[in-house]
Amino acid sequence: MRIARILAATAMLALLGGCVTVAAQRKLERRVSELEHEGGTGSSARLADLGERLEKIQREIKQSNGRIEVAEHRVDEALSEARAARQDAAAAVDAAHRAISADEEPAPDAAGEEAKADSVELKAYRGARAAWSDGNLDACIDRFRSFMQTFPSSTYAENASYWMADCYFKRGDYKTAVLRFDDVVARYPQGTRAPDALYRQGEALLRLGPNYGKAASKAFERVVREYPDSARALEAKKQLEVLGSG
C-alpha cells in the first residue's frame, strides 16, 4: 500500500506545472521497483525515506499553491480597485464637463417623477439660455418668460429673470431692462445675481440719457452700500467717480 501511495504521489507531482519531469518520474518508479524486489530491512528503510521525501515535496507544493492562490486573490482585488478608481475618475471628469457646459445651473438631485419634472425644467432653461447665447433676443425673452410662468419656484428662476433682463438690455429696450433688473433685486436680494442686476440697472439708466444720471447714481450707490464685498462694488465706485457723485 505504501508503494502504491508513493507511485500515486509521483504521478501527481508530474502533473504540477513541471515540478517533476517525466524522466525523473520514471527513474523514481524504477528505483521503487528495485527496492520492492530487493526486499529486506534496508530496502524498507529506503522506501520509507523515499516516501517521507515525497510527502515533504507534496506539502511544499501545497504550501506553494496556497501562496499562489493568495497572491492571485490579491491581484484580483488590486485590479478591481483599479477598475473602480478609473470609473470614479471618469465619472468625476464627466461631472466636471457637465458643470462647465451647464454654466451656473445646479445639478438635479431628485428621483422618480420629481427627477423627470426637473429634467423638463432644466431642458426648458437650457433652451432659453441657448437663444441668449445665439443672440436670438426675441426667442430668449419669450422662452425665459414662459419658463418663469411654468416654473416660478425653480432653482433657476433667479438666473432666468436676470438673463431675460439682459436680453431687453441688448435689444436696446432700456426702460424695460431697468424694470426687469429691478425685479431681480426685489425678488432675490440675497441671491448671487443681485449685485450684477443692480449694477446693470444703473447702466441701463445711463443709456436712457443725461436726465437719468441721478437715478443711475442711486443704483450704483446701492451696489456699494448693500453689496460692498461683491465684484461689482469696485466698478460701481468708478461709475460714481465719473458721474461726480463719488
Commentary on this structure:
The chain is mostly helical and 246 residues long. It folds into 2 domains: 95 residues; 130 residues, Serine Threonine Protein Phosphatase 5, Tetratricopeptide repeat, CATH 1.25.40.10. It has 10 helices and no strands. Helix 1 runs antiparallel to helix 2, helix 1 runs parallel beside helix 3 and helix 8 runs antiparallel to helix 9. It starts with a helix and ends with a helix. About 8% of the residues have low confidence.
Describe what is shown at a glance.
The chain has 246 residues and is mainly α. The chain contains ten helices and no strands. The longest helix has 62 residues, at 40-101.
Let me know the CATH homologous superfamily of the largest domain. Answer: Tetratricopeptide repeat domain
What separation lies between the terminal Cα atoms? 111 Å
Computed Rg:
42 Å
What number of structural domains do the residues give?
2
Order of helices and strands: HHHHHHHHHH
Q: Quote the CATH topology of the largest domain.
A: Serine Threonine Protein Phosphatase 5, Tetratricopeptide repeat
